[in-house]
Amino acid sequence: MKNTVISIVGARPQFIKAAVVSRKFSALKVNHLLVHTGQHYDFNMSEIFFQELDIADPDFHLGVGSGEHGEQTGRMLAEIEKVLRAEQPSLVIVYGDTNTTLAGALASVKLKIPVAHVEAGLRSNKRYMPEEINRVVTDHVSELLFAPTDTAVKNLEKESIIENVYNTGDVMFDIAQQIEKKVRPREQSILLKFKLEHKNYVLATIHREDNTNVEMNLRSIIEALQQVAQDGRKIFFPAHPRTKKYIQKYGYSQPVFNDNFILSDPVSYSEMIILEKNARVILTDSGGVQKEAYFFKTPAVIPRDETEWVEIVTAGWNIVTGADTQKIREGIERLWRESHMMNWQSFYGDGDASGKIGRIVKGYITSD
Predict the structure, then answer these.
(1) Class assignment of domain 4-170+350-365?
(2) Among this protein's residues, is 69 annotated catalytic?
(3) Which residue in the list 40, 207, 240, 340 is annotated as catalytic?
């Protein structure tokens, strides 16, 4: 349908990004449809999740589910193509670096439908990572590239991608600010709910396969957190279901987690924002949490060998340690002591990335 835009999402962070962009489309009177591939049956994709972010139900739910990379991407390609043939949009928007991102981009360009990529230009320079392949291929087939940072723009220039590249800032900065403002009146009650005190705990999130599926890595991370807890720091660890499964598989029992080391069920997005804002230090292998921590001026330790958000590391707010027990412990202790001395810069725009994306997209689809 002429002047219709379709967003294709499949995981919780993509719904969050699409939600804030969708609201701008509505204000600009751009017809926007949402396709959910069903890539992740997410632990927090509940009615509450949709309500707290004011997300409309998807117009199409493809129900692809989990599977090996090739199998899953292939099923998504086939199902997305059916929707695109029926709807004939003027533009397809994909977000981030998942298999949904790649499938949405490939299905679209095969049908000669232009693609816009939100979060274009991120690079870990680790081609063995599925996410790296997804983001590189998507960038090279996209018509509009919405980069969140100067670094991302430079990465695209290195690959000779210079046309229709826009440094919009990061849509996650937009929505994190919006949610924080909305949930601020509940801030103290959320901390009380989890028995936490302002700037007196370490928030931990681990979900990447490199850390959950590799026993040595997960054991090293848990051991580091145990040592930090034994030093008297409180640890709050809302565990992804896959992470909890492997914690149990590797033989950790409840006594490992005590009053100073709390293993929790997953929390809602709004609760997570408050927990990130009030933590003294965050340990995370999530790129999204890493950024959100920085939005709220909370330093983070990254138990990976690299990160796409290099500017935060260069600025000293993040320490990349790998899954190394001693480096993780030392990193947490250093940031605990030094967090109040750090200078903060606005790497991720002015909080209107979604507005810029909306205006560029409207101009593009109405230019004919």
Answers:
(1) alpha beta
(2) no
(3) 207
